[in-house]
Amino acid sequence: MNRYVAALVREMELVADDLQPKTIFFGGGTPSVLNLRQWETILRAMEKLGLPGAEEFTVECNPATVSLDKAKLLRDFGVNRASMGVQSLDADLLERLGRVHSRDQVFKSFDILRKAGFENLNVDLMFAIPGQTMQIWRDTLDEAIAMQSEHLSTYEVIYEDDTPLFHQLQAGEFSVDEDLACDMHHEIVARATAAGFQQYEIANFARGISPAGVPDFACRHNVNYWRGGSFYGLGPGATSFVRGVRAKNWANTQLYCEQLERGQRAIESQEELPPLKRAGETAAFGLRMNAGWPFEEFRRATNFDLRDEWNADMDELISRDWAVRDESRFQLTPQGLRFADSAAELFLR
Fold first, then answer.
1. Is the dihedral of CA 211, 216, 219, 221 positive or negative?
2. 26-49 tens-digit pLDDT
3. CB-CB neighbours of 280 under 10 Å
4. Exposed, middle or buried by CB within 10 Å (0-12, 13-18, 19+), for 131?
5. Around Cβ 321, how many Cβ atoms within 10 Å?
6. What average pLDDT does this structure show over 85-105?
């Protein structure tokens, strides 16, 4: 872990001159597993390189690895948002997911983060977990909403190769119930909205209602992705998009460290996207947001007009009742948002 931290600091040094970040996000695995000394090494390096001062600085936390000392250190160095990987508040489901935290640790860690001065917290939940009934999901939502976080994110379970859940599915120990998954998604939308959250993206809800579609406590870092903005990604497997070039780091941690120890970036591949292909990706990602794409905003972001290149695709989605269009914007309907990946495919070039 110390070797990895040293390599990450080296990568920061190599890109720092090109950076004045508006948002920073430490995510991926479990950043909170780093100890105090390792975090201090990273944060002091960032300070020395002039990287702090971001409007939004998020660190993802596992409830089992949050301590008051660590939370205070993060706050002292400008981290102002924490995202807690809760997944479920049902003890049996946490065990099924192989999570290392208990439900009690969730509430304890949340209180620690508040005590350390965090005024912007996200609770990350998972639905359609095998064995999760609608009543269990409702109970989890009620408890999560009662915690009074500023943000909620909710994701349908994904069956990744070589995970216990994937093998259980292959062995026929349970089946996937798509109808129940749809109903659970409707349930979070209804309950979160009733509790004062605004849905601004398929899986994301935030407080601070905004008529423009991006509430005050929306995750600005993610909004930048969905709106086609530039970003640097650091660490093994991280992706960057800078000046029209997409770059991907080596995913193997050993290889990543070796490259940086030689004083070079650990880049595995680079691709310069043609403008139309990039605009198609930007269109597809942006449709994940409830606000869809205001035509003028899309033109400013890509130098393309949705009504020229993608007119037939918009008409196709409207005919399916997956989207609506007026003079100023194109956006998916609630049903369209549920099938956003399929809708997005039409826009790729």
1. positive
2. 997 789 899 999 999 999 999 999
3. 22
4. exposed
5. 11
6. 89
